[in-house]
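Predict the assembly for these two chains.
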Amino acid sequence: MDDAERWRDLDLLLTRAGRLVGPGFEPGPELREFLQSPDCRVLCVGAGGLGCEILKDLALSGVVHIDVIDMDTIDVSNLNRQFLFRMKDVGQPKATVAAERINARVPGVKVTPVFGRIEDQPADWYRSFSLIILGLDSLEARRYMNSVVCGFLEYDDEGQPDQSTIKPMVDGGTEGFKGHARVILPGFTPCFECTLWLFPPQTKFPLCTLAETPRSPAHCIEYAHLILWGQVRPGEEFDTDNEEHMKWVYERAAERAKQYGIQGVTFQLTQGVVKNIIPAIASTNAIISAQCVLEALKTLTCFSTGLDNYMMYVGSSGLYSLTTKYDKDPACPVCSPGVPLDVDPDATLQQFIDQLLADPSLGKHLSAPSVSYGSTNLYAHGIFEADTRPNLSRRMGDLVADDGAVLTVNDKRLRGPMRVKVRYGSAMRA
Amino acid sequence: MGPVVDPKAKRYDRQLRIWGTHGQQRLESCCICLLNCGPTGSETLKNLVLGGIASFTIVDGQKVEARDLGNNFLVSASSLGEPRAKVVTELLQELNESVSGSYVEEVPEVLIADNPEFFQSFDLVIATQMREQDMTKLDDICRATGRAKLLIVRSYGLVGYLRASLPEHRIVESKPDSQLDDMRLNQPWPELVAFAASFDLASADDVTHAHTPYVVILLQAASAWRSAHGGRLPGTSAEKAAFKASVNGMRRTADGVPLQEENFDEAAKAAFHVYGTYEIPKEVRGLLEDEAAGPRLRADSDEFWVLVAALRAFVEGEGQGTLPLEGSIPDMHATTDLYLKLQAVYREKAERDTAAVEAHVRQILGRLGRPADSISRETIKLYCRHARHLRCVRYRSLAEECSPETARGEALAAALRAGGGSGGRGGGDLGAPPCCDGALYVLLRAADRFFAQTGRYPGAPAALSPGAGASEVDPADDIPLLRQAAMQVLSDAGLGPNPRKSPDSGAGGGLGGLGGGGGAGGGSLPGTAAGAINEDLLAEVCRAGAAELHVVAAFMGGVAAQEAIKLVTRQFEAIKLVTRQFVPVAGTLIVNSMAATTTVLEL
C-alpha cells in the first residue's frame, strides 16, 4: 500500500505552509514521520465511550505508538456507544479488546493495552509519553492524572515554567448531548485544580428525609441502599455490579414506596440512583473525542491554531458551543509557581507547618509535610528527620530571610511539590 | 418495570435515560439513506447504527482505495478495490445485529439525476461531501416525497458544514435543560386555594409547622398580602422584599429566635413564584396563532396542529389564558403524607385540564371529518404535559437560501461582521477578525463554484479519481480564482463590490476586477462583508485542498448524528436561532476547527 496515497488528506495539511497555524509550525514530511515514530507516544486514559473514539481518531491521524489504560471490563450497556466491543466481548478487559480491534483494523498501528488502575503505574511510565489524552468519567480520576502531569512541572528561578518539563494533557468529558474538551499545558493553562468549580457538587439527600419523610421514588431507593442494607446485611459490602444486590435494593425500595403510597420505583431508576448513572450516547462521545484528538494533533505538530483552552459543547437544544480562555488560579496548590501565604516571621517552622495543615485550600493535600528552601531541607521526614528536627523550633524569619521566597512542600499525598510563596510583609506591618 | 430487564433495554440503557422508550421506538422505526460513505458519512451512520435505527442504505460509487485506509475506520486493508458501499455496510452491520443494512453501488449524483423515486422509501436522507447544485436538486426531491427529511453534512479541511432541510420540525416531548416548575402560585385554582387554607399554622405543633410544604406557606402569605393590599400581589421590588420578609415572619420562634425550619427557607427562595406573572412562552404563543392550527387546519393536517388548535381552544376557554397544568411538583421539605396530598391536588387539576383539551380534540377531529378516536388519550396527555415546550421550526429550502432573489444578504452580512465563536466573541463592529465563521460558509460555496469551473477543489491535487496519480498543485495559485468565486457568492447574495445582475454569467476565468484585498474598504456594509473574506482564510481553504481529515469527519459525524436523533425523536430542538420575536429559525451550522468555534447562521 502506498503510504503517501494513504495519508494524502493528512499530508496536505502537514506539508503545506499555512496562515493560521501554531507557533513554530514547520511544514514537511518530517511531521508525519514524527507522528509515526517511537518518539511520539500518546497515552489514552480510559477505553470507554471516549477512549474507543480517541484510539480510533489517533490511529487515523497518523499516530502509531499508542498506549491505553483502563481497569474496567465490558458490560452490555457499553454497546450503544463503545463501538470497538461486541456482545461476545462482555466480561473481557476493555483496554485489551480495544487495542486488539484497532491493531487489527488500522495497518501499522501499535496500541499497547494496560488492564489496570492508573494509580498503579509509576510516574516514569507517564513521563515517557509525548502527550496524554483523558477519556474519563470521574472527577477523582481526572484530579489524579492532573496531579501526575503537574508533578512533572518545574519552574526556573524567575518563576517561569521549564518548557522541557511540560507534559501536555487533553481532557474530554460528556453527559448526554453535552460535553467539553480542554487543553492543559501545566504552568501555562489552568489545571484541573485551578478550575474545580467547573464541576458542580453532587446533590445528596439528607438521611433524615430518607428515614422519616420519603416523598420520591429516589428517596425510597436511597433508603434501601444507604440505610436498610447496613441494617439487614451488616458487614456485607454493597456491590453495584452484583445483580442480586441491585435486585435486593430494588425490591426493598418498591416495598417502601408501596407502604408510603409513592409511585415510580423501577429497576431502571434504582440502578440510575444507586450507581449515579450518567446518560451517554455515541454521537456526543464522537464529537468530544474528535475535538480532543484534533487538539492533540495540533499540540504535536502545530499544523493549526490550538484551542486556548476550553470548549464547551451543548447539543441538547439547538447547538451552542463556547470557547473560553480560563485563567490559572495563582493560589492553585497543584500548579502554582508559589501559592501566596501570609506568614508571621516570628512564627516557628513548626507553627508554619501547622499553618499549612490548617489552611482550607492547602491542608487537604497534606498529611505530614516536609519543607525545603532551595536545596536546603528545613524539615524533612525520613532519614533527615533527626538532622532537621531542631529547625522546628526556630524562627521563620531566621530560616528564610527573604520576603517572597518560594518554599517547596513535599508530602506523600502529593505527586509533585507544592510551592508556597512566603509573605512576611503584612505580618510585619501589623 | 420488574428487575428482569430485556436485552435491548440493557444495551440501550444509557440512551433510554435520555429519550425514553418513546424516543427509542421512533429511532427503531427510522429508515436512513446515506449518500457517500467516506469518513464523514461512515462516522455519521456508525453513531446512528449504534443507537439502533431500523435500517440503512448506503449509496456510494467508489472502490476502497489506499486513501480510505488513512481516514476511514469502516474499511479494512483486505477490502482494497472492493466497492466502498459494500465494505462499509458489512462493517457497520457488525456494530448492531438488530439494524438491517443494504447498499447501492452508484454515484449519488447520478441517482439524484436519474432516479428521484429512489428516495421515497426513506425517513431521513443524509447527504455527505456533496456540492450545492446537487443538494438543491436533492432538497426538492426529498420535500416532494412528503416523508424524507434531508441532512447535509460536509467536512472540508478544518471546516465543517451541516444543514437540515424539511418543511417543519415539530417537537413534542421536549427535554429542556432547565425549566421553572409549573406551580401557578400567582393564580391558584380553587382546590389549591382550599388546600392551603385548610392548614392552621398558628396552632400546628412544631413538627407539622416545620413540615408544611412551602406551597402552603406561600399561598397563605399571598392571601394575607392580598387582603392587606386591596387584592393586589407584590409588584415593586420594595413590595417583593416586604413579601419575603412577611414569609420569614411566619417562622416559629423560641425566645424570639427563629427556629431552623427548612420549609421556610424553601418558601423564601420560591417566593418569586407568587409575584411573577403567568405567561405562555412566546414560542408557544406563536404556535397558537399559527395559521396551520387556524384557517389552514385541514383533514390531512399533522396531529401536532390538531393538538395546537385544541390547546388554543383550551387557553381561550377553560384555561382562562393559561396552558394545561403540567401536574408535577418538585421535591420539597414536607412529611410524606402532606407532600403526597399536595401532589394529588396538582395531578387532579392536570387531569381535569387534559380532559378539557381532549374534548376539544374530539370536537375538532369531528369537524375535520376524521374519526374522533384517531388521536389517542395517551397522545393528548403527552402534548398537555409538554404544552409549554411545544415548538415548530420551519426550514427554508436550499434553493431559497442560494438564489439571488431570496438570499438573506443582510443576515449573511451580519454574520460576516460578527466573526467567529458562538457568542459572537471578538470582532464586533471593528471589522472582521482573522477567523470569521461566516466567511467560511461563503468559502465553502465558493469552493463548489471553483470545482464547477476547474473540475477540482482549490488546492486539491488535479485527479481525485482512483488510479490517476495526484499531480502537485501550488495552493497559492488557486487563491485568485477562489477569491473571485467568493465575491460572486457575495454578489449573488446582494453583497460585495460588484453585485451581478445575472448569477449564471460565469466567472469567465479572468482574474481581474475583483483581485486585491477582496474589496474591503469604505466601511460600507457590503465592503465590510467582503473584507471578511481575507487572505488568511483564502490561503487556509486552498491549503486544505478539500482534505477529509478523520478527526474533522468524526466531529461532524457526531454532530450530524445528534441532529438526526433530534429530527427523528422529536424531543429536542434542532440547530436553530431564536429571533427577537422568539420564533425559532432553522440554522446552518459552520464548525471552525481552527478556532474550535461553532456558529449558526440564519440563511
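Chain A touches chain B through 86 residues (CB under 8 Å). Residues 214 and 354 of chain A are 44 Å apart (CA to CA).
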